[in-house]
Amino acid sequence: MGDVWVLGGQSNMQGYGNLSGAYGNSSPMVRAYYMDDRWGRAKEPITCPPIAHAPVHWRLYGLTVPQPAKWKEPMGKGAGPGISFANEMFRLTGVPQGVICCAHGGTTMAQWDPELKKEGDNSLYGAMLNRVKRNGGFVSGMIWYQGCSDANEEAIPLFRQNMIRFVKALRRDFRFPGMPFVQVQIARLVSADAGSDKNWTCIREIQRTLQSSIRNLLTVPAVDLELDDGIHLSGKSQITLGRRLAEAAYTLTGGKGALPPPIEFDSMKLKALPGKGEFQCVVSFRNVVGELVSAGRPAGFMFNGSSADLSFRAELKGNSVILHCGFGVPVTSLGYGCCANPYCNIHDRAGRSLPAFAWQPLCSRYFKTPYTRRMQVSEPFFGTEELERISYADSVKLSYSIPPQETFVVPSDRAQYTARQGVRFFRSVYDVQEPMKVRLQFGYDGPVKVFVDGEAVYMDRNGTNPIVPEQHRLNAAWNKGRHEVMFALALHHGAAWGVSLDIVRTDQRRTRRNAEQGVSLPVEIG
């Protein structure tokens, strides 16, 4: 035997894909250490708990003794990624490959707890160690697919730390401090459970970011792959996954001519293009081989903490995706594959998928309020549209209402005044709990004058369509207390519709710590 890899985790590593799509013509140089403690040429299904030498596996199946007759699952199931992985590693290295099968479907991180190793073959971790010891105690690395059974509210808070402890214990017990560890970012789930979307997204995000906490660990995405049932990858998808795992393992081991690590999310930014009447979300990625491509219309991006795709077109350009959005669309955050069962189809020229990532704020450096929700709008103040002659005092004698608001604040009766001249006042009031530096971010579509706390601070005589949220910015230092932002927008013979406003706190940069603790922001009051 040449290189030896441990296969661990739950059912998608054990293998539940249809055998009709399983890897065929496996090389005689690829062998498996089956669960009944015998080596043989690798042939699906390679992982069969009911025949295991270790009692933990057949007891988890509800059996009192091992049952060799239960070699195959019903309905022709049993395809996993292990054989594809090992054959690809043999192709890349020219070295014979062996896999030690240790996975068990439906298991949790608690069941894989290294503290249970003292129970030996009566625990998953202990049984795995014993199988490695019976083969000399030396391995080349670990291939791991787990997380589905931990996608619940009780287990998610513990998942990251459990994974860190698990990998640390493995490397200690295998006496291999830098042992390569390649994990799969869990694939899809077809479920009617309302909590699945959130839970699946949380686990994927922990897995995506785990390599920042564990060295020599890489995460391979599977969110784009097809299923053979509601949770298990198809036999054909397992072949693809095995190849991706091998590419990542070969990269970790410093193989000659290895691909870059799996694709990683890099950055995103929002660009306003008033001349085209659109916003563009530009999302960039690292480690892309060649360029990003898709089969059909690029899909998988989701906006504002929901599964909605608010872009009207996705354009692939090198290592970036450009999402084209209309001006009327409020865009505050963006993710990819953010639900249990997304449709994702973007990969690079090497066939490697984008990773699923949870919604990232588009204003990531600082904390920002939502777009105004309680902005008051005055009745028209008829007369001059010469902004120099408009004063804050003109706003005081008018009556106000609060129209329905999204990103833009647009009065519903604006069409009644297409033949009239004058201005309309738009007023937002904020409560500030402590002194802070802020940036007012606003848009408008007509000549406008801006007052802050009653003082004129900005004027644009040439404002015109369309409204571009956050196109214009003003910095201010606000003390604790009440503050008011007022727009005087010319009616402009009906051509001016409205305004937008949100506020960024610029003296508090966003960090993981203060994002969790919360940062004081201006609070809009009615």
What characteristics describe this protein?
alpha+beta, eight-stranded antiparallel β-sheet, seven-stranded mixed β-sheet, 9 helices, 30 strands, 17% helix, elongated
**Low-confidence sequence ranges:** none
Major sheet details: 8 strands, antiparallel
Classify the secondary structure makeup into a structural class: alpha+beta
The percent range for strand residues is 25-35%
Q: What is the mean pLDDT?
A: 92
End-to-end distance: 74 Å
Rg, Å, rounded: 29 Å
Description:
The protein is of the alpha+beta class and 526 residues long. It has 9 helices and 30 strands. The strands form 7 sheets. Strands 20, 21, 22, 23, 25, 26, 28 and 30 form an 8-stranded antiparallel beta sheet that branches. Strands 4-3-6-1-7-8-9 form a 7-stranded mixed beta sheet, sandwiched between helices. It has a 4-stranded antiparallel beta sheet with strand order 10-11-15-14, with no helix packed on it. Strand 7, helix 5 and strand 8 form a beta-alpha-beta unit. The longest helix is centred in the N-terminal third of the chain and has 18 residues. It is elongated. It starts with a strand and ends with a strand.
Entry summary:
The protein has 526 residues and is α+β, with helices and mostly antiparallel strands.
Helix and strand topology:
Blueprint: E1 3-9, H1 11-14, E2 17-18, E3 30-33, E4 39-41, H2 55-60, E5 77-79, H3 82-93, E6 97-101, H4 124-133, E7 141-145, H5 156-173, E8 181-185, H6 196-209, E9 217-221, H7 235-252, E10 264-273, E11 278-286, E12 292-294, E13 301-303, E14 313-317, E15 320-326, E16 333-336, E17 346-348, E18 357-361, E19 366-368, E20 376-378, E21 381-382, H8 393-396, E22 400-401, E23 422-432, E24 436-444, E25 448-452, E26 455-460, E27 472-478, E28 481-490, E29 499-509, H9 512-517, E30 523-525
Parallel strand pairs: 1-6, 1-7, 3-6, 7-8, 8-9
Antiparallel strand pairs: 2-5, 3-4, 10-11, 11-15, 12-17, 13-16, 14-15, 16-18, 19-29, 20-22, 20-23, 21-23, 23-28, 23-30, 24-27, 24-29, 25-26, 25-28
